[in-house]
């Protein structure tokens, strides 16, 4: 048989195909991210237009004259067609201009930069608690399927899903703060410790460590430990349930049976081989749980007077401060998109097959 050699152009195309495939995947990811953000901006823009709140009255007040009202109406661009208003809205968001908060009289972007580190600190600590306790609990539950350790873990998870978070928060404050005095009360610090150390990151635990002020550090720990534990409990319930499900699937695979036949210890089989494969999909679970805590800790922040993003959006909504509400909503959407992108990157780093 005669062999047909490929031409130089065909060889170049074949050798360059991984590069082009990488560009294609990158382009698809960027397009998906841009499309998601465009949809988020469109939804928030339409919500602002259908809400029964007059942004002009919120700006000038109900006692303003008609001339002042008309001038503010034109200044906000509300006399323009909706397409033009949406264009200006996207332009402002891209440049970080969310308008001025009626509640604080400061730019919304500055308010968000001030309150978001508090939410980030709380959600990060809660996620750490959920991961450190949830993954081992899920592994133990899967290994002892149907026996008492499994029943205990499943009951703890079910209780975490069933109890309203505001009820657990109030009971926690009553018992551990009001009765026992084991933890600090609402807020991030006792009032006489506020504004003592310089704000570097906005997260008091880190800032106090940078300043080496151990008194403020332990005071901050006493305030954050209860709300972080409550949020961490909900994260634990979700992560343990998913870990159990993933582990049960892996423990029934043939490679686990082969490893046991080869004489590997049960500890190595479970914690190295099975859990190693479980960590690949579990990364997505952990990242999404973290994202949910960043935007879903509203009730916890309100109960504990935690000056975070959720509390800020709630107060803005009650005050009809739509600039602050929409700005916070857009930031939450950006967090979700960014964490989903991080999840994809981590997935490919952990699993070589995804690369």
TrEMBL record:
Alphabetical list of InterPro entries matching this protein: BPD_transp_1_N, MetI-like, MetI-like_sf
Transmembrane annotation, as ranges: 26-48, 122-144, 156-177, 216-239, 270-291, 324-347
Pfam families linked: BPD_transp_1 (PF00528), BPD_transp_1_N (PF19300)
Entry keywords, A to Z: Cell membrane, Membrane, Transmembrane, Transmembrane helix, Transport
Membrane topology: Multi-pass membrane protein
Database matches in CDD domains: TM_PBP2
Highest taxon of source: Bacteria
Domain ABC transmembrane type-1 per the UniProt entry, residue ranges: 116-347
Entry's localization field: Cell membrane
Keyword Transport: yes
PROSITE patterns: ABC_TM1
Main location: membrane
Family in the record: Belongs to the binding-protein-dependent transport system permease family.
Record protein name field: ABC transporter permease
């Amino acid at each position: 048989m005669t062999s047909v050699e490929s031409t130089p152009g065909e060889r170049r195309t074949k050798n360059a195909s991984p590069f082009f495939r990488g560009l294609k995947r990158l382009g698809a990811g960027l397009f998906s991210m841009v499309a998601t953000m465009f949809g988020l901006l469109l939804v928030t823009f339409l919500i602002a237009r259908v809400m029964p709140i007059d942004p002009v009255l919120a700006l000038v007040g109900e006692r303003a004259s008609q001339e002042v009202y008309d001038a503010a109406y034109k200044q906000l661009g509300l006399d323009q067609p909706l397409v033009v208003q949406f264009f200006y809205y996207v332009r402002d968001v891209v440049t970080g201009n969310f308008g001025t908060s009626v509640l604080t009289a400061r730019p919304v972007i500055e308010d968000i930069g001030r309150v978001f580190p508090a939410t980030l600190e709380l959600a990060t600590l809660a996620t750490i608690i959920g991961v450190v306790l949830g993954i081992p609990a899920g592994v133990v539950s899967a290994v002892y399927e149907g026996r008492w350790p499994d029943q205990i873990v499943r009951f703890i998870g079910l209780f975490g899903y069933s109890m309203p978070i505001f009820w657990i928060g109030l009971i926690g404050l009553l018992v551990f703060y009001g009765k026992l005095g084991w933890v600090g009360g609402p807020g991030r610090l006792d009032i006489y410790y506020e504004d003592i150390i310089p704000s570097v990151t906005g997260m008091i635990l880190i800032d106090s460590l940078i300043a080496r002020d151990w008194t403020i550090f332990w005071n901050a720990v006493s305030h954050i430990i209860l709300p972080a534990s409550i949020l961490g409990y909900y994260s634990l319930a979700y992560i343990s349930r998913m870990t159990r499900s993933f582990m049960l699937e892996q423990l029934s695979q043939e490679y686990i049976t082969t490893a046991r036949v080869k004489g590997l210890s049960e500890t190595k089989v479970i914690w190295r081989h099975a859990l190693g494969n479980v960590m690949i999909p579990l990364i997505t679970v952990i990242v999404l749980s973290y994202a949910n805590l960043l935007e879903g800790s509203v009730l916890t922040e309100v109960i504990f007077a935690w000056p975070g993003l959720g509390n800020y959006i709630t107060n803005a909504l009650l005050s009809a401060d739509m600039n602050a509400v929409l700005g916070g909503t857009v930031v939450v959407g950006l967090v979700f998109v960014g964490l989903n992108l991080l999840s994809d990157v981590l997935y490919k780093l952990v699993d070589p097959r995804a690369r």
